Amino acid sequence: MKIFSVIKSIILWSYERGSWQYDILCVVILAFIFFTPNRFLDERHSNDPIKNTVQTQRTYISTNEITQVASQHTRLSDLLSDVLAKRYQRKVTIKRVEIDSVENNTKNQDKDNQINGYRVWFE
User: Fold this and answer.
1) With 90 as the cut, is the pLDDT of residue 26 above it?
2) Is 87 found in the same domain as 63?
3) Are residues 65 and 118 in the same domain?
4) What's the pTM value of the predicted model, to 2 decimals?
5) Number of independent structural domains in the chain
6) Residue 52 forms part of a structural domain
7) Which domain holds residue 98?
8) What is the DSSP string of the chain?
9) Is 51 within the bounds of a domain?
10) Which tens digits make up the pLDDT trace of 49-94?
């Protein structure tokens, strides 16, 4: 019966401040915070497929960054995923691409769209 009363006191935190029991509980909590491995609480390392769903991220790729990559891609999505793979050091899947362009209007010229970069959503 005494064990249950001790467990009840711990769960309900019924010890007075400054008592040795209170100090022990504080030390146990701090030890848990500082000595628990990251993989124990980090959801990215779990084996549960529901928790391991990859969230889509968004980034911006400038045309300068694309021209620095010397590759022979014919499709824009392949070129962008190659740039992102080098940037993030992992294989990525492109979900969506938007073109960032500026319209240059002058009196003597028609509308020219100059592409500054791409907004890319990827996994």
Assistant:
1) yes
2) yes
3) yes
4) 0.48
5) 2
6) no
7) 57-122
8) -HHHHHHHHHHHT-SPTTSHHHHHHHHHHHHHHHHS-HHHH-GGG---TTTTPPPPEEEEEEHHHHHHS----SSHHHHHHHHHHHHHTS---EEEEEEEEEEE--SSS--EEEEEEEEEEE-
9) no
10) 555 556 778 888 888 887 776 667 778 888 888 888 888 888 888 8
